[in-house]
C-alpha cells in the first residue's frame, strides 16, 4: 500500500487532522488498532470536553460542529477555582473576555462520532480498523509501516496520534517525560437541585480534588480525584450511595444530587515528548503532549496543533514542495512546543501545589487565589485567551 500520509490513531485529533487534509489531492490513510465498530459507534466514556472559541472555529470549518445536537452543547460562562473550605476563590468570568461565554462543553463521545462521520466518506481518505502497527522503518524519502497482519504501508509522511502511551512514538525512538500523579479520576453525570449558572468549578479540597462541569438544565458532570485505594471505595458504592457521597463532598452546595450516568475512572498521567518530529514523522495530540486535565485544555491544544500542521502541509503540497520536508516539520514543531510547553509546565505546577495539603502549600495557594481575584488584568488575560478566535 502506498499513501502520501499515514496516520496511526483514529481518535478525535487523528480524524480531525485527516479531515483538514480533505480536498488537497493527498492520499491519506488512517490505521487504528480498535475494531471498526468501536470507531464507527463511539461509546460514551464519561468525559466532557471544554472547547475554546478557537477550537469551535476549527470544528466548524471541518464540519463537526454542525453535527452536534443542541442538547449536547452546554455553555461555559464562568470558571471558579476554590481552595479548601473557603467559598471565595478565583472566578474567571466570560465578561472578563467580553464574551457571552468562555467556551462550550461537548461530550467526548459526540466529538469522536462527529469526527468519524465527516471522515468516513471523504474521497482520498481511507480508514483501516483492526490495524495495529508492528514496526516502523524510516527510509530516504519516506516511512514504511509493517502492520500486525503482515501488510506493509509506504508513506511520504507518518503521523503518530495513538495516545499518550504511543507505541509508534517508541518505535520512532522518541523518548518522553512521563509523570504519574499517583491518583485516579472518576467522572459521572449527576442531577442536582440548585442551579450551577453554567459555571465550572475546580475545587482543591483537602485530601481530594473536585470539579464540576455544567451541563444543560440542572445537570452536571462531577469529577473526583483520589488516591487509588480511596477511589476503590467510591467505585464500590451503588448509585444512591455514590450520589449521597458526592453531595457530601460538595458540601451540599448544589443541593440534593442524583446519579444519572455511568461512572468512568482513569489514571492521571502526564506526558511530554522529547521531540515532536523524527525524520519524516511527527507526533500529534496526546502522543506529543498528554495534559493533566486540571486546565481542561488537552484536546484544544492537540486540535490546534493538528490544524496548524495540516495547513502547512496543504500549502506546501499546493506549491509543489515536500510535505515532509525538514524545514516544514521543524517549524511546526517549534511553534507547537512554544504553545504547549508553558501550559504543560504550568499545569504540572498547579497540580502539585493545589494537591499538597501541607500547611505552607495551603497558605501559598490561598494567598495566590486571593491576589489573582483582585488583579483584574490577570482575569482578563485568561478570559481573553479562552475567548480568542483564530
Please render the helix and strand layout as text:
Blueprint: E1 2-8, H1 12-20, E2 28-31, H2 36-40, E3 48-51, H3 53-62, E4 74-76, E5 78-83, E6 90-93, E7 103-107, H4 108-119, E8 125-128, E9 133-139, E10 142-147, E11 152-160, H5 167-171, E12 176-192, E13 199-205, E14 208-215, E15 219-226, H6 228-235, H7 239-249, E16 257-259, E17 264-273, E18 277-278, E19 281-283, E20 289-290, H8 298-318, H9 326-353, H10 359-374, H11 376-387
Parallel strand pairs: 1-2, 1-11, 2-8, 5-13, 11-19
Antiparallel strand pairs: 3-7, 4-7, 5-6, 9-10, 10-11, 12-15, 12-16, 12-17, 13-14, 14-15, 17-20, 18-19
Protein architecture, described:
This protein has helices spanning 12-20, 36-40, 53-62, 108-119, 167-171, 228-235, 239-249, 298-318, 326-353, 359-374, 376-387; strands spanning 2-8, 28-31, 48-51, 74-76, 78-83, 90-93, 103-107, 125-128, 133-139, 142-147, 152-160, 176-192, 199-205, 208-215, 219-226, 257-259, 264-273, 277-278, 281-283, 289-290. By secondary structure, it is α+β, with helices and mostly antiparallel strands. It has a domain at 2-56 and 108-178 and 270-355: 3-Layer(bba) Sandwich (FAD/NAD(P)-binding domain). Strands 5, 6, 12, 13, 14, 15, 16, 17 and 20 form a 9-stranded mixed sheet that branches. Strands 1, 2, 8, 9, 10, 11, 18 and 19 form an 8-stranded mixed sheet that branches. It has a 3-stranded antiparallel sheet with strand order 3-7-4. Helix 1 packs parallel to helix 4 (108-119), helix 1 runs parallel beside helix 8 (298-318) and helix 8 (298-318) runs antiparallel to helix 9 (326-353).
